[in-house]
Each structure stands twice: as C-alpha cells, then as structure tokens.
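Reply to dn_fold:

You asked what the input looked like. This is it:
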Amino acid sequence: MTFSIRPLLVLALTSAFVLQFASFARAQEEEEDADQAGRNVRLDGPTIARLGIQTTKIQTAQNRTETTGFGVIIAFDTLAQVDSDLTTAEVATENSAAAAARARALFSADTAISRQALETAERQAASDAAALALAQRKAVIAWGPNVPWHNARERSALLGRLSSGDAALARVTFPPNAVGDTIPSSLKLERVDAKQGSASWNTSAVWSAPADPTVPGRSFYAIVERARNLLPGERLRVLLSAAKSQQGVVIPSAAVLIAEGKAWYYDDEHISPPIPAAPIEIFTRRMLDISQPTKEGYFVSDGMVGQVVVIEGAGLLLARETGSSEEEE
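and this is what came back:
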C-alpha cells in the first residue's frame, strides 16, 4: 500500500508556521509588558517621604476644543465703492421703472405721448435694470451670499457703523474640513501675538465669503464689534469653539515631565502587601498627549477620574527608573 507524503509535508509546514507566529506574538506581548514594567518605580513609605514625592487626585473636567483660523480687517473704502455703485444702480432702476410705468399709463390713456417716447422710457428702464443686476453680482463677489442685511436701509446703517469705527468687517479663513458645512454663529478674534489677558473681539454676524484662491480652506465674513482700535489690513487670529464639550480629566502642569522627546506623567498605585506595616507605592510613567492645553494643565479624554498623579518629585522618579540617580548616603 502506497502513501503520498505531500499532504503530510504541507501539514507539517503549516503547523510550524502557526507555532512560529504564536511564538512571535507571545514574544511581542512579553516585550510590551516588559517595556511598561520598565517604566515602573516601586517605593516604600519612608523613601517616598525622604524624596518629597507629592501626589494629587485628578478630577473630572469638560473641554470645549477650539479651531484656529486667520482673519484680516477689510478696508472700508473697498466696501464704500461697492455700496456706491449698488446704490446708484438701485436709485436709477427705481426712477426709470417709475418713468416707464407713467409712460405706459399715458400711452394707454391716449394722452399726448408718442410710442417713440414710450419705447425710449422702456429701453432706459431695461438698461438700468441690467446695470443693477451687474452691480448686484459685483456686490455678491465682494460681500458674498446670504449677507446679514435685508434692504438698502439696513446696508446703509451697517456701513455707517463701519465708517465710524464702531464695527469692522473681517474676512476669516479656517483650514479645510475644520468647520464642515455649517456657518459659525459667533467667532472670537485676537491679535496674532496676543498674550493671556490681551484684548479680544467678538462677532455679531457671520456669513459665507467667496473662496480665496490664494488661501486654502473655507472663508467667512464677520462683523467685529467694538473695533475702534483695529486697523484696515490688520491680521488676526480667529477662534471657533466646538458646539459640544468633551468629558475627560486635566493632568496638572506640575505633573508633566519631558523625556525621550515626549511628554509623560507618573500615576500612583497603592499596593497593600501581606505585611500591612510595609505598603508599597507603584509609580508608572505614562505618555501624555499635550495637544489640548488648558489653564491648569492638559486635557485628556481617556483619563480616569480619581487617578492619583505625581505633582512633585517626578524628576526623581525618572532618575530612579532610568538608573541615573546617585546612591544616597
């Protein structure tokens, strides 16, 4: 009876591959555990007191992220010229339309008006209407669609505030995909070099602006309030707060240390050994995401409320962990 060795060979090779892969995965897990264990420092109570290690419990916190864009104050003369052309076209259209209506009424009543005079009035009305449509298109290019005013009177009132300096018009741009399809209800503006406590400005109206081919992203126009000390052409930093706040914790600034080119902090875990008189504290170094700074420290959404972190002596723990501390006398 003859047996083929090919299936047995395939089975053997498959089994060897599976065993090798499992061994590699187990070794990788052990390496990761060892790496994390290498970031641990175990200390007893007397040593903690001698080193001056101090800790605190982190509390729950809410953070409303901000998207940063850039803005520039638009010169008023640009707005004034567009408004002047639009106002002139509106008045001319209104007058010529009224004149054409009177001419039609007189001609229909057979009252001393020629067809030629009627046609002249109608041609003038059509010409003025075309000029108004052109001025309106130029206004849309200059001001964008969905402007906050509804008629010429409201537009004139706003331009009066802009000319007096009570308000300013800013063009703001945010990075691509930063704001989605929504139009912000309000924005906060500050100078590019602003420090904490520096002056800032809020907006009363925001609407879409035509795309700027020189700056990628989405642009808006915004009416800036209390803008007397803002100058035309001045560049500003624009802040947009997220609609919803995140739930998480804040790692205090005092807990942060820099090592290996990254930010870290130590948390503290209390271990009760079989001998109650000799408790052990395990301090574990954990990487910190510092992309969301706050006044108190750094917000993290995946932190644990009540977690104990080191706020004094983290550098000494790092020295002990890395073996660079000197022997105590």
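Residues 69-241 form one domain.
Hope that clears it up.
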